[in-house]
Design brief:
Elements (H helix, E strand, L loop, with lengths): L5 E6 L4 E14 L2 E6 L5 E14 L4 E14 L2 E6 L2 E3 L5 H16 L7 H18 L4
Parallel strand pairs: 1-6
Antiparallel strand pairs: 1-2, 2-3, 2-4, 4-5, 5-6, 5-7
This protein binds adenosine-5'-triphosphate.
Amino acid sequence: MAESTFMLEVVTPERILYRDEIQFMVAPGIEGELGIMKNHAPLVAALNIGVLRYQTSTGAAKRMAISGGFMEVIDNGARVLAETAEHGDEIDVLRAKAAKERAEKRLEVKSEEINHARAKMSLQRAIARIRATEKPI
Ligand code: ATP
């Protein structure tokens, strides 16, 4: 299978989260999911808050949570620059659930003092993190 792989790099301002050969990936593009395989045409895309799914060179299905950013595909490499990103297995689910509840409560309050746009983003990050911890079907 090695001949059908390409390089995925996921970088945040804090760290290089991932750098390895993969077989396939699906990224949360602003205008819908973006599936990438080897020899994909060059591409630059803005990413949503969501889950990035990929298949490693040995065929394991993995997920990470991404909180928005950009993806560039060029020369058989995909590079994701994300504001934050976590591997599914390093996510603290209880923390994400608590963040989800906090954001939901804020969104229920009709007050000028609540920044609804900020609460919505926080809710989306929490949902993406919870989804990234779920086992792929
Ligand atoms: P919280 O309210 O729980 O801090 P948040 O959405 O405000 O959530 P961010 O500002 O997006 O958090 O992230 C801050 C840092 O914490 C980043 O490095 C991010 O990767 C990490 N992080 C956030 N939530 C989790 C989580 N549930 N498990 C592991 N790391 C997390």
